[in-house]
Amino acid sequence: MNHSWKKLSTRSAALVLGAAILLPGLTAHAATAYTAKENDTFWKLSKQMGVPLQQLMNANPKVDPLNIYAGLKLVIPNNLSKAAMDSVPIAEPVVSAQSITTSSGQSLPFSKVINITASAYSASSEENGKWGAVDYFGNPLKLGTIAVDSDVIPLGTKVFITGYDFAGLPTGGLVATATDKGGAIKGNRIDIFVPGSRNFVSDFGFQSVKVYILN
């Protein structure tokens, strides 16, 4: 990258202390402050605000996508023209009675159900390569980690998985978060992290499961 700079005249370089500076491509209304609410996720906010998921995450580089809590201050990027903004319909609250009850009695509201082909992976170096036993965000792999195609299930989405039959996973279903990706995970596919040896985990094979996208 070329970091050379042209010399500026003293007059043009002088700035008044406290003056506002607009960078190229930005306007005074390029971003909006937002206070997170309980159960907010980047995926949910991207849909609600009409902002691409990756753009929203880029605007909040210091925010852990898995730790968005009520009261957290977020930046919502906004580079739409006024005419474009006026054409965007105001999101109306969606009231849904859909919920699934776990074997422990917990009621989990959900917005969507997807039929998925699931496989499983372990923490072995053969399966995780040079990156080691961490997910896409660099967090250690743990029960509840799943790898997804982010075009189908966006990263950061919380889900409830049912329909599998495997001794290494909780009976009745698993609450998980999409925090990992894999080259072979395309379309309606997920890869579920399971603690244990590679040989043990490989017995999972391929199974048809239901994935509930939680609110």
From TrEMBL:
Residues 32-76 form the LysM domain. One of its GO terms (biological process) is peptidoglycan turnover. GO terms for molecular function: hydrolase activity, hydrolyzing O-glycosyl compounds. Keywords: Signal. It comes from the Bacteria. PROSITE patterns: LYSM (PS51782). The keyword Signal applies. InterPro entries: 3D_dom, 3D_YorM, LysM, LysM_dom_sf, Resuscitation_pf_RpfB, RlpA-like_sf. SMART domains: LysM. The keyword rRNA-binding does not apply. One of its GO terms (cellular component) is outer membrane. It holds the Pfam family LysM. This is LysM domain-containing protein. The lineage of its organism: Bacteria, Bacillati, Bacillota, Bacilli, Bacillales.
